[in-house]
Amino acid sequence: MHPPREPARGRPGGTVTLDPTATLGGRLPATLRDQFPYLAQELNGHPLAYLDSAATAQRPTAVLDAERAYLERSNAAVHRGASTLVGTSTGAFEEARATVAAFVGAGDREIVWTENATDAINLVALGMADASAGLGGSEADVFALRPGDEIVVTEAEHHANLIPWQRLAAKTGATLRWIPVGDDGTWGIDDAASVIGDRTRVVAFAHVSNVTGFAAPVADVAEIAHRHGALVVLDACQSVPHRPIDFGALGVDFAAFSAHKMLGPTGIGVLYGREQLLDALPPARTGGSTITTVTMERAEFLPSPHRFEAGTQPVSQAVALGEAVRFLDGLGMGGVHAHEAELAELLVDEVARIPGIRLVGPPPGAPRAALASVDVPGVHAHDVGQFLDAQGIAVRVGHHCAQPLHRRLGLRATTRASAYVYTTADEIRRYGAALAEVRGFFGAGA
Question: According to the UniProt record, where is the region Disordered (predicted)?
């Protein structure tokens, strides 16, 4: 049902002038931080330690300059008209698509620009709802859901990969089921196999949890899902920016990720889909740029990706995202992943040495992404965050758009520290030293 295909080949070049040998063993160039002007500022009288990259990453000068240069010299409506400026703009727009496609092992027609990752997941769910209502013709039957069909998610999902499927189930009469998590907030392949069955039509889950840092066994889950004839939708927001990714090799049918988490701008995300599936999925948003023929009675739509990109496209954002991908390619994603693995180990060690602090997710020594959510007994997460902020350390507090997971763990909120390519070991140690002072400061224990 899902034959393997050759991954897309990357394009040569790139604009990051960094020595790729410097990334070996995770040791990224010492000059890397100099390329991020945001990181040079102080926060509350202290050097900024930005540990909130899982929420949004900072942008290097090369990305800022690329978007500015496009707006100053190349700005025009893409795919509209025949002027030289339109051709230049369209070329930059589509070059960015090809760059992103190569970065994730996809073909150019398998990359759709969206508003963000949330929008990308909704495009799939809404398209399936339309197919279930009879839109899209016989080609869309593969997406149609009926009473008795099942949609499977996990108990750890971000709301963006939960609520669209809740609504799809409500619209179609399908049943929403979920893979349960253990007391540490993680799940395994046996848990998935116990829920996915012959009634399953969709399996949607995160590659990396934004709360626990747990990395799912994607290829294994995809194999089980496909064996039962189900489609696989991957939330790749916390994986594409941080490790080498090839969606074709992973075997997923759809995937979503956001530019702003990978050194790019806000206002643009990416939907990956297998070409034959995208060409059959009814477009959730319609209008200009999506059609081949329109009469007063009906419309016929273009193939992917343009059938999904109605209206004025996020052109400068796409150009900036393309530059962000070239920047990451210049660093080498293997080096990025190795660097973050070292930081993840240090981050967990810093938390584990503090008495009374609860670490959410995999235990010390187990693989995880470079993020850690913690509970400080007796101190609300918001107070923890403000205490750290006063010392120049920026983190994320709250339920991280994952209320069901927090509820399962008996928590209302956690404090999350997350690292990226520009994070240093010294910043992690500063975080650990400050976190160790929290309970004493608030009189909640030694």
Answer: 1-22
Cα separation, 224 vs 204, in Å, equals: 13
Residue whose tokens read 């224990």: 445
Paired residues of 300 in beta bridges: 293
Residue 105 · residue 247 · CB < 8 Å: yes
Query: CA nearest 10: which of 95, 110, 105, 109?
Result: 105
pLDDT for the residue numbered 202: 98
Active site members: 401
DSSP state at residue 256: E
Give yes or no for a contact between 314 and 70, defined as CB atoms under 8 angstroms apart: no
Beta bridge partners of 414: 398
In tens, the pLDDT along 163-200 reads: 999 999 999 999 999 999 999 999 999 999 999 999 99
Task: List the alpha helices (DSSP H) in 256-376.
Answer: 275-280, 315-331, 333-352
Give the chain's domains with CATH numbers: 23-52+333-441 (3.90.1150.10), 67-329 (3.40.640.10)
* Secondary structure of residue 371 in the 3-state scheme: strand
Show the tokens assigned to 304: 């992917």
d(C-alpha 123, C-alpha 307), whole Å: 12
Residue 164, preceding peptide bond in cis (omega within 30° of 0): no
Alpha-carbon gap, residue 329 to 443, rounded angstroms: 47
Confidence of residue 87 (pLDDT cuts 50, 70, 90): confident
Q: Which residues are 256's β-sheet partners?
A: 235, 271
Average pLDDT over residues 371-376: 98
**Cβ atoms 96, 304 nearer than 8 A:** no
Residue at token pair 């990395």: 215
Cα end-to-end span (Å), the chain: 59
User: Phi and psi (nearest 5°) for 303?
Assistant: -65, 170
CA distance 178 to 74: 47
Identify residue 232 by its one-letter amino acid code.
V
Taking only the tens place, the pLDDT of each residue in 297-339 is 999 999 999 999 998 899 999 999 999 999 999 999 999 999 9
CB 216 within 8 A of CB 203: no
